[in-house]
Amino acid sequence: MARRNDHSREQLRDLAIRSVLNIVDRDENAKVTTRSVAQGMGYTVGTLYLVFRNLDDLLLQVSSELLQRLYSDMRFAVKDEADPQATIFVLAMCYLALAEQYPGRWRLLARGSSTVGDNDELDKVVEAIFTLVETSLARLAPTRNSKEIAIAARALWSAIHGICVVSTSSHLHHRAYFDAKALTRTLIYTYLSGFMFGNIEPLTQPS
Amino acid sequence: MARRNDHSREQLRDLAIRSVLNIVDRDENAKVTTRSVAQGMGYTVGTLYLVFRNLDDLLLQVSSELLQRLYSDMRFAVKDEADPQATIFVLAMCYLALAEQYPGRWRLLARGSSTVGDNDELDKVVEAIFTLVETSLARLAPTRNSKEIAIAARALWSAIHGICVVSTSSHLHHRAYFDAKALTRTLIYTYLSGFMFGNIEPLTQPS
DNA sequence: TAACTTATTAAACATTGTTTAATTTGTCAA
DNA sequence: TTGACAAATTAAACAATGTTTAATAAGTTA
Questions:
Q1: Spatial contact of A43 and A7, defined as CB atoms under 8 Å apart
Q2: Of the candidates B114, B156, B186, which has its C-beta nearest A152's C-beta?
Q3: A193 and B194 in contact by Cβ < 8 A?
Q4: Mapping DSSP to helix (H, G, I), strand (E, B) and coil, where does residue A13 land?
């Protein structure tokens, strides 16, 4: 059977990534297995190990790809003339849309990989997304310094991610107004209102 | 070898749960495997299946147990005379302390189980924790109605959880002021300040 | 003491990630 | 053209896992 040069390494990489997406799109709960991925691309397992160090490496690269697309969507959705509050809301909605329309893909992203800090591309795009949020925050609250902005962006984005995590894994979306979108909406506007007008320090110092 | 009645079902359950905690306490990255759990309790795998439906069921019961202890800690930490803002901060610190002191246990909690809504005990204690937060929020902002309070509690708690998730899995705790505690602190005080004084609705309606 | 019940185990099975040795295929020098 | 080398691809093996099953040992009771 052994074909040769039917596909280049790059093409194999693409085939593999597409196969993974195919699997999780068909069934968000499906286990992504080396054999199923290989079968999806018309090869056998061995070929996978020619292109990726292991399964985790492959899934990490898929995550990186997904985040890059998300970043793309975000860039496209942002209108420079829009007010920063609305912009941040739109950014969050891009994220929620991914989780809602492609739950399998989102679970791939949310799954904490055992091999962290191993993928430079991924780190870079995460930073880029944070920068997007930071830019809007800076326009929203010009008096805050860059460290405050950086912290706020990470706190806010982690929070939105947390809402996604909890609302998909649980236990508490039996009421409509507890869904991810409603919670995110509340979170953003409440948080931003505090960020603009409130004092970041506690009114009374906690012990 | 086969002993009989050395331990009751209840005792076996306890042994199993203790064994799991032992494993993740020794190494937060250790895989919890049926065989390792069984070995830790001085039995073989078969016995596990006498007490639990499967591994997931066991891990779910461990999570339930952990959440009940967390709830206990929270109840103990809350001082009725303290101001609500400080109380909410203390509640969050209980959660963060678990994640920091017992990262393995926390990962057990954070891991989204494939079998959800399958454990009534777990659902109950999650609700109880939310109620704790709601109580403080209600005292903080007496003008808000109960639906707003409920939403805020869930948004805020999901956010804290999200900070935990992101800060343990990543990528962005190379700077000290990005650690979970600092982010949580910022989040809570900013959010609460918005919740007390701000308008929940956007200042300008987003599209 | 013998039969019966049941706790416990050992062994089997299927599925997985990963490695290895074999095979097929293309390339290129003689 | 042919034959040897290199590389792509596979099939098969391996170890680790969750789960099931048949055997075995131990307590209980008539």
A1: no
A2: B186
A3: yes
A4: helix
DSSP chain B: ----SSS-HHHHHHHHHHHHHHHHHH-TT----HHHHHHHTTS-HHHHHHH-SSHHHHHHHHHHHHHHHHHHHHHHH--TTS-HHHHHHHHHHHHHHHHHH-HHHHHHHHSPPSS-S--HHHHHHHHHHHHHHHHHHHHH-TTS-HHHHHHHHHHHHHHHHHHHHHHHH-TT-SSGGGSHHHHHHHHHHHHHHHHHHS-SS-SS---
Tokens of A193: 């209102």
Question: What does the block give as tokens for B167?
Answer: 């800060």
Q: How far apart are CA A164 and CA B201, in angstroms?
A: 21
**pLDDT averaged over 10-residue windows placed end to end, chain A, 207 residues:** 73 97 97 98 96 96 96 94 93 96 95 72 90 96 93 94 86 65 94 82 49
Number of Cα atoms under 13 Å in the Cβ half of residue B20: 25
B130-188 confidence digits (pLDDT tens): 999 999 999 999 999 999 999 999 999 999 999 999 888 765 545 666 789 999 999 99
Beta-carbon contacts of residue A94 (< 8 Å; ≥ 6 apart): A70, A73, A74, A77
Q: What is the pTM of this model?
A: 0.90
Set out the domains of chain A in order of their start, with CATH numbers: 1-52 (1.10.10), 56-197 (1.10.357.10)
Phi (first) and psi of residue A21, to 5 degrees? -60, -40
Nearest CA in chain A to B187: A155
Contact call for B191 and A192, based on CB within 8 A: no
CA A35/CA A50 separation, integer angstroms: 14
DSSP letter at A166? H
Q: How far apart are CA B154 and CA B162, in angstroms?
A: 12
Other CB atoms closer than 10 Å to residue A165's CB: what's the count?
Answer: 23
Closest CA to B194 of A194, A85, A155, A188: A194
Nearest CA in chain A to B89: A206
Name the helix (H) or strand (E) containing A21: helix A9-26
Total residue length of chain A: 207
